[in-house]
């Protein structure tokens, strides 16, 4: 059955209310590598110790995420063969280490890359404090639906590319991942078998289980905070990436950063000889 554009575009996604505590926050932070010592053997205790805990800001991308609606066969989405394509978060207020939030999600658009070329589905989610309804973040994510192209929709690119400058990077950092990184990260709510079942991963074209794109995204946030925000998570205002190649658990992530202007950072992330994250854009608030 081909993808039904009108049905998916108007799919009713229920608001999601989620309560989280310091244990959830520490688990998320560990999932994006916060417990792995840096090259000097240092671990930033703010991300792993409940006495002074702050979340890695990209935790906003998993709160109230609720992507399971795409697995419903009634949507006409071929859910067995989809991968994360792009991610963007804009933070409007600091994320607390514990609390309760409400997420409101809608399908923003579906782009048709053509028959045998797949489709791109873009969602927009706003994250609000349950008490007072203050908006914490606006989250956009796109999913590459490998088997759902050719339904007759628009092929216009979701957003313009943000390529890295051609000059050498201004800063560079390497961050190792653990062999069990995906097994830790999945405990924050993404149980897609691609990240745990090697047979499933090989069946859809990968060499083995891969790290969640949003886990690599969290590593990127930590790199930007360390190198461009003087270690202050609250200064990270926006983070956009394109997921360009898989990362396998245990690989080292290498981030190259370019200071474009006072508030804008471009970056790429490599894993081995692959560009894992491209079109990296970060906005930094003044101190």
From TrEMBL:
Recorded GO MF terms: (3S)-3-hydroxyacyl-CoA dehydrogenase (NAD+) activity; 17-beta-hydroxysteroid dehydrogenase (NAD+) activity; enoyl-CoA hydratase activity
GO biological process: fatty acid beta-oxidation
Pfam family, one: MFE-2_hydrat-2_N
Superkingdom of origin: Bacteria
Domain Peroxisomal multifunctional enzyme type 2-like N-terminal: 20-146
Coiled coil: none
Domain MaoC-like positions: 164-263
SUPFAM superfamilies: Thioesterase/thiol ester dehydrase-isomerase
InterPro entries: HotDog_dom_sf, MaoC-like_dom, MFE-2_N
Protein's recorded name: Dehydratase
Species for this entry: Sphingobium indicum F2
């Amino acid at each position: 059955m081909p993808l039904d554009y009108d049905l998916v575009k108007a799919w009713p996604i229920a608001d999601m209310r989620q309560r989280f505590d310091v244990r959830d926050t520490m688990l998320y932070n560990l999932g994006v590598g916060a417990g792995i010592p840096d090259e000097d053997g240092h671990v930033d205790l703010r991300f792993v110790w409940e006495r002074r805990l702050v979340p890695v800001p990209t935790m906003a991308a998993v709160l109230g995420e609720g992507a399971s609606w795409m697995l419903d066969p009634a949507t006409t989405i071929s859910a067995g063969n989809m991968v994360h394509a792009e991610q963007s978060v804009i933070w409007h207020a600091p994320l607390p280490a514990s609390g309760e939030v409400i997420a409101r999600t809608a399908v923003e658009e579906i782009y048709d890359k053509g028959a045998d070329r797949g489709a791109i589905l873009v969602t927009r989610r706003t994250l609000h404090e349950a008490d007072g309804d203050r908006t914490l973040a606006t989250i956009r994510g796109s999913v590459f639906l490998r088997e759902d192209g050719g339904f007759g929709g628009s092929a216009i690119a979701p957003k313009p590319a943000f390529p890295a400058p051609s000059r050498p990077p201004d800063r560079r950092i390497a961050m190792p991942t653990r062999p069990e990184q995906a097994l830790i990260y999945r405990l924050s709510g993404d149980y897609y078998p691609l990240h745990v079942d090697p047979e499933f991963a090989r069946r859809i074209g990968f060499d083995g289980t891969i790290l969640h794109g949003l886990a690599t995204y969290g590593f990127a946030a930590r790199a930007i905070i360390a190198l461009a925000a003087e270690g202050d998570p609250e200064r990270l205002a926006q983070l956009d990436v394109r997921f360009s190649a898989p990362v396998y658990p245990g690989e080292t992530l290498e981030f190259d950063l370019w200071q474009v202007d006072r508030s804008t950072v471009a970056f790429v992330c490599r894993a081995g000889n692959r560009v894992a994250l491209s079109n990296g854009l970060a906005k930094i608030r003044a101190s």
